[in-house]
Structure prediction request, 208 residues.
Amino acid sequence: MVDPNATQILIRDARGGDAAAFQRLVALYHPRLRARLQRQMTADMRAHVEPDDVLQQVYLEAFRSLNQFQYLGKDSFLRWLFTILDRKLIDEHRALHAERRDVRREVRAFVSPETASYVDLLARIGAKSATASQVLRTRETIGTLEQCLSELPEHYRDVIRMRFLQGRAVSEVARTLKRSEGSVHMICHRALQQLRERFESRGLMPES
Prediction:
């Protein structure tokens, strides 16, 4: 059981900018969120969607909107996280059945598997290549992305490379780095945020 008082203290500290407090929140609630995710995912989703990717989206949205959360008693924070999770699952379900093809899948048809992993990373920080005709530009952009990545702290680089470029599961990354899965999720969030900031500082805006 999660202590409600501990949750309130961690939320307060996280709102004040304490990243470690939010990391502890993730660690506390990760098992129950993952269990709910596993129950909710359909067979079709399991074949196309990585659970860790969905959870990463949940934690990112929770971090961004933490100031909007209102404590309404025991388990209210968990229910709030469940609401975010359920919304992400609905989004994933719609994306799987959308008539238009996903942008990243379209680009993969024109690039090598190695380049495709960088295309995915670009999409994660918001630098989207809308059509296959922009692949050449994407290839030129990868050099800039690699330079930005090299400027990150070493443990950030390690997590980004293992999680997003090598496609390893969060559990495997956690074992390799001897960290908790919650810690890896938080490092992913902070590393992607720094990568995006460095990318934008070079005049490459997400929607350009």
Notes: Residues 4-96 form a domain with the Rna Polymerase Sigma Factor; Chain: A fold (CATH 1.10.1740.10). The CA atoms of residues 37 and 51 lie 7 Å apart. Residues 19-40 form the longest helix (22 residues). The chain has two domains: 4-96, 103-201.
